[in-house]
Design a protein that fits this description.
- The complex is a heterodimer of chains A (248) and B (280).
- With 248 residues, chain A is α/β, with parallel strands linked by helices.
- The radius of gyration of chain A is 18 Å and the shape is globular.
- The two termini of chain A are 32 Å apart.
- Chain B has 280 residues and is mainly α.
- The complex binds adenosine-5'-triphosphate and magnesium ion.
- Chain B: GO terms for molecular function: phosphate transmembrane transporter activity.
């Protein structure tokens, strides 16, 4: 799945948040987005699954293409959101059982076959690395899970509708190192079959898992390229400063 | 540091005494009512019609109990559904357009209308214009207008209090707002919404002004017809008391009314405490 962002700008009311973003992310693997707080990472991510427009005063110009198709062309945000899953910074467990959390999307999209639903539940939880921990408490309220488990549940819930792209907004920022490692390993596995865009504040995390990394500042692209290159031989001075910790 | 902790303790003491004062006032009222009216609150009082001359000096209040229950029932039937729809519109779909702001202000103003004014409107509109006459229906609908804003405001706040992250999570899956509402948001808000409806019912049960001019009479049979006038507890109390018919019966009626309201309010509180609990 290729993601192309062309001359993309976002405003809230008249206040500009993203300025003429141009970037291309081809195929599978993990694409990390780094940058100082408030530079527009979340807004960029939410633009890619059309949830940014839910916020008041949203305005945009430019194009975002998924496999060459302009996702803002049609007035059908829901089908884009189904294809582009998103996991948020704070782990969210919907107020229902673990199983119903995972099946929330599939049920909405009309899956009624019990066998299929059970298979989707098991497959998604396995993909999210949560199956072993919850297989005996699928009927328990999801609120009982730990933070790290909830975050993996959110990943399972997103995977259950078989998205082509998975967006993650600082998914580990409220988790302990062990849970973080678990999720990183998971993302690496998942990146074999689906495109992943990962916003992170943790430069080491970007270094560990990302094939490509994008540095943003003040709503603009500073530099992006293969992760190794960005960290070892940055082209721009801002990048060098940022990764050496001078500008955060 | 010393002055800080003194201040803290002083404030704490103030809050405590405020709470204590409220408790004392409430128990005082109930205690006094028990003292004056407790003896008249008998099974016979609850199960017979008023008798004697002037009417009410003996006998009970059964038609008034029935009338009040019917009035409240009609008010809730009339106000709950439109109130809920308005609340859902305001909390989920309204964003913050000029129209929503207008609706919000209107509801707020409606909540502030004195109940006697609502009564006069009910008289002009239901009793006279629509030709319902002095009736259960006219009174119930007037009470419905009175409690409508209460239901809207409590339901709106209950819906808005549901974790915003749920809505975002649903949206990010491509799930429609309506589906989110009926699977997540409304079930989460339900206890608080019900609690608001119960409070509104209590408000309607105790209101005298709107029914005085639309529905309530000194004596009515037990037919319970929609187009018939009815007796009602607060109005009966008002008559017993203002016409010096029987202070003892007046206190008995007041006690009954207060117990009914206490029951509704305590149920409402218990329900409200359940919002969002239990993981589901
Ligand atoms: N709904 C909104 N309305 C108005 N301004 C917004 C809105 N969302 C974001 N912004 C503004 O846009 C800018 C970028 O926000 P965004 O959340 O995309 O930053 P971020 O890079 O994700 O920051 P962080 O690292 O702190 O999460 C910020 O200045 C923010 O105040
Ligand atoms: Mg962010």
């Amino acid at each position: 799945m290729s993601i192309q962002v062309k001359n993309w700008s976002v405003f809230f009311e008249k206040y500009p948040v993203l300025h003429n973003i141009d970037l291309e992310f081809n195929g599978q693997g993990i694409f990390a987005v780094i940058g100082p707080s408030g530079c527009g990472k979340t807004t960029l991510l939410k633009s890619i699954n059309r949830t940014a427009e839910l916020d008041r005063g949203f305005n945009c110009s430019g194009k975002i293409l998924l496999n060459g198709e302009d996702i803002y062309q049609k007035n059908d945000a829901a089908s884009i959101r189904r294809r582009v899953g998103m996991v948020f910074q704070t782990p969210v467990a919907l107020p229902m059982s673990v199983r119903e959390n995972v099946l929330f999307g599939p049920r909405y999209y009309g899956e009624k076959n019990k066998r299929k639903l059970r298979d989707i539940c098991e497959r998604s939880l396995k993909q999210a690395g949560l199956w072993e921990e919850v297989k005996d408490k699928l009927e328990h309220p999801a609120g009982e899970l730990s933070g790290g488990q909830k975050q993996r549940l959110a990943i399972a819930r997103a995977l259950a509708v078989e998205p082509e792209v998975l967006l993650l907004d600082e998914p580990c920022s409220s988790l302990d190192p062990a849970s973080t490692m678990l999720i990183e390993r998971l993302l690496t596995q998942l990146s074999g079959t689906l495109s992943i865009v990962l916003v992170t504040h943790n430069l080491f995390q970007a270094k560990r898992v990302a094939h490509q990394t994008l540095l943003m500042m003040a709503g603009q692209v500073v530099e992006y390229g293969p992760t190794g290159q960005l960290f070892s031989k940055p082209v721009r001075q801002e990048t060098a400063d940022f990764i050496s910790g001078l500008t955060w | 540091m010393i002055s800080r902790s003194f201040k803290d303790r002083f404030l704490l003491a103030t809050f405590w005494s405020a709470g204590l004062a409220i408790l004392l006032v409430l128990t005082g009222i109930i205690g006094y009512l028990l003292l004056r009216g407790g003896s008249s609150l008998t099974v016979e009082f609850l199960t017979t019609a008023p008798r004697g001359l002037p009417l009410g000096t003996s006998g009970g209040v059964l038609p008034a109990i029935k009338g009040t229950l019917l009035l409240v029932l009609i008010a809730v039937l009339a106000a709950a559904v439109p109130g809920l729809i308005t609340a859902i519109y305001l909390s989920e779909y309204g964003e913050s357009s000029k129209f929503t702001t207008l609706v919000n202000i209107t509801i707020q103003c409606m909540a502030g209308i004195p109940s006697i004014v609502t009564g006069l409107f009910g008289y002009a509109f239901f009793v006279v214009y629509l030709g319902f006459g002095f009736s259960l229906l006219a009174g119930g609908l007037s009470l419905g207008i009175m409690i409508f804003p209460v239901i809207v405001l409590t339901a709106r706040d209950a819906l808005l209090a549901v974790n915003e992250q749920y809505r975002l999570t649903g949206a990010a899956l491509g799930v429609s707002r309506w589906y989110m509402l009926h699977r997540v948001i409304i079930p989460q808000a339900a206890p608080a919404i019900l609690s608001g409806i119960l409070l509104a019912m209590g408000y309607a049960a105790g209101a005298t002004a709107p029914i005085m001019v639309t529905a309530a009479v000194i004596s009515a049979g037990m037919s319970g017809g929609l187009m018939e006038p009815v007796m009602a507890l607060p109005y009966h109390l008002y008559i017993l008391f203002s016409q010096h018919i029987s202070m003892e019966k007046a206190y008995g009626t007041a006690l009954l009314l207060v117990l009914l309201l206490l029951f509704l309010n305590i149920t409402a509180l218990l329900l409200k405490g359940r919002q969002g609990k239990g993981g589901y």
